[in-house]
Amino acid sequence: MLKILRNHRWFFIIFFIWLVILASLQIVWSPAELMFFVNRHNSPLLDTLFGYITLLGEDGFWLIPLAVYLYQWLMRKENVKNQAIMLIIIWITKGLVSVIMKNAFNLPRPMEVYEHSGRVIHVVEGLEIHHWQSFPSGHTFTAFAFACYFILVARNNFWGFLWLGLAMLVGYSRVYLFQHFPRDVFAGSVLGVAVPVGLVLLFDKMKWPASKANG
């Protein structure tokens, strides 16, 4: 574990700062204050921007690198088998953890809580607003897991840091779009990093060098 943190310290430092900011905001302000602060700072440009950015947390984006890896695997390219297999394992594990937790907690989403509060709620036109299974944020979970995958397994710092930045924007978009509370985003962020790290440590312990796929 210490080796992973040391080898990718800047990734985890930036991630830790993100968590500290999220935690601090939730200590200082109530969920309602945070939700409506973000919600009232809206614009048509931000509606469009975050409407697209939030899509980066969809599971469909995992199919892109998976298709590339499988193609290279079929073409007998080296150093892609473990990457492809590990991507599938992380993808499946992430999905199972997310579904189990959402159904186990089944917490109300912001719209369910504040719909009849009498406060003005800005909603992006055409967006389907969900009411339940708020915790954790699955989109945030997916985005951070993707970033962590690129850093630990694919050993691609460019894509890892790019997706880390995008993952933060995905997390913010879930609050902006009134789909999740900050607590859901915080949990999704932690899980998104914890699951890949845990799996990499597990497979390293089993002597399968999944985290060394690129040599």
Describe what this molecule looks like in 3D.
- The longest helix is centred in the middle third of the chain and has 25 residues, at 81-105.
- The two termini are 19 Å apart.
- This protein is mainly α and 215 residues long.
- Helix 6 runs antiparallel to helix 8 (138-152) and helix 8 packs parallel to helix 10 (182-205).
- It has helices at 2-7, 9-28, 31-40, 44-53, 63-74, 81-105, 110-114, 138-152, 157-176, 182-205.
- It has 10 helices and no strands.
In short:
By secondary structure, the protein is mainly alpha-helical. It contains ten helices and no strands. The longest helix has 25 residues, at 81-105.
Keywords:
mainly alpha, 10 helices, disordered C terminus, globular, 215 residues
> Could you give the order of the helices and strands?
HHHHHHHHHH
pLDDT averaged over residues: 90
What Rg, in angstroms, do the CA atoms define? 18 Å
Helix content: 55-70%
Shape: globular
Report the sheet with the most strands, covering strand number, pairing sense and barrel closure: none
Our estimate of the beta-strand percent is: under 5%
Give the helix tally: 10
Give the tally of β-strands: 0
Write the layout of secondary structure elements.
Layout: H1 2-7, H2 9-28, H3 31-40, H4 44-53, H5 63-74, H6 81-105, H7 110-114, H8 138-152, H9 157-176, H10 182-205
